[in-house]
From TrEMBL:
The name this protein goes by in its record: Serine acetyltransferase N-terminal domain-containing protein
One of the GO BP terms on file: cysteine biosynthetic process from serine
Residue ranges occupied by any Serine acetyltransferase N-terminal domain in the UniProt entry: 10-114
SUPFAM superfamilies: Trimeric LpxA-like enzymes
Organism for this UniProt entry: Acer saccharum (Sugar maple)
PANTHER family named among the record's database cross-references: SERINE ACETYLTRANSFERASE
InterPro entries (alphabetical): Ser_AcTrfase_N (IPR010493), Ser_AcTrfase_N_sf (IPR042122), Trimer_LpxA-like_sf (IPR011004)
């Protein structure tokens, strides 16, 4: 799937901030690596993070990851909506210090992403 320049810029900012955070907070390095730094794209990182947040003992994170990634990759509007939601959180919430902060920690953001992906299933 082709990404827009804005999506690429947001992803670059997310990775840069996560890398800085991993260096300054070694206790978080493993979490940041597995959730953001090991992924080549925003859609893969988001699918991984949502899969881990929504998994259970009977619904494995790997199954959810594949399901979410296929859904996000098949519809470019989903990724565009994710980027728009990241921008909205940064613009409207003074406590939101970075796109990566929103992606990792904002339950409302993650709920919106889960809703959008599940609506396409």
């Amino acid at each position: 799937m082709e990404t827009s320049p804005d999506e690429e810029e947001v992803w670059a900012q997310i990775k840069t901030k996560a890398h800085r955070d991993a260096e300054s907070e070694p206790a978080l390095a493993s979490y940041l690596y597995s959730t953001i730094l090991s992924h080549p794209s925003l859609e893969r990182s988001l699918a991984f993070h949502l899969g881990n947040k929504l998994c259970s003992s009977t619904l494995l994170s790997t199954l959810l990851y594949d399901l979410f990634l296929n859904t996000i990759s098949s519809d470019s509007a989903l990724l565009a909506a994710t980027v728009a939601d990241l921008h909205a959180a940064r613009a409207r919430d003074p406590a939101c210090v970075s796109f990566s902060h929103c992606l990792l920690n904002y339950k409302g953001f993650l709920a919106c992403q889960a809703h959008q992906v599940s609506h396409k299933l």
